[in-house]
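README: folding subset

This subset contains proteins for which both the sequence and a predicted structure token string are available. Records are stored as plain text. Below is the entry for ABC transporter (261 residues), shown exactly as it appears on disk.
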Amino acid sequence: MLEANSLSLGYGQTKVIEDLQLTIPKGEITVFVGANGCGKSTLLRSLARLIKPQTGEILLNGMGLKKQSTKEVAKKLAILPQTPLAPEGLTVLQLVKQGRYPHQSWLKQWSEEDESVVNRVLELTDMKEFEEKTVDSLSGGQRQRAWIAMTLAQKTDVILLDEPTTYLDLAHQIEILDLLFELNEKENRTIVMVLHDLNLACRYAHHIVAICDKNVYSQGKPEEVITPQMVNDVFSMRCEIGKDPLYGTPVCIPYGKGRKI
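--- output ---
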């Protein structure tokens, strides 16, 4: 269980999130949506203890996050930032192996389980054939998949991902989101993501949190949250909401200029 109580976040004197209350549903996929600069990524990073709250606290399994050791938190919660950087010359295999470090100590070195987990996530993310290539030699999409593999290798119950489909073409976006959906379905992983695409958010999320004006505008099931009024208030954009013909989830159709048929 991941919770935020009376949470305020900011940079210097500028507040980005103010007095926010939030409970992340356990064992579900939660997606944060909102306009650029509304605080989605800041909120996600604070849930991983990468940003210190100005006020309030974050609880992981009922205990204050700041009271738990970094290693203990890393065994329960993994995060993939928006634009991670790898040291020059690091191979994909070396990068993914770093995800196993929280599970090791001077008494417990690299194990068969570590090897098995690393191989599995390389295959899951379709990166096995690139394992000896350096991360900086990969395309943007391949690089993103390598980082996702490292995050999965940490094998935590909670996974936080900041725009995990960045740099990916449509086919690989669906592939990665399908993978995360499968992890949730089969292994009951709690997954929290920031996504810009409202239609993909509706298709994959059990729970959507719309952020606006430094707080939660609305939250709940996609069909409860994604409404013309929400899109207008949060994104300043008029739209119609339809239904996905394949999955029955909400589809946002924005007004705007375009080619008429």
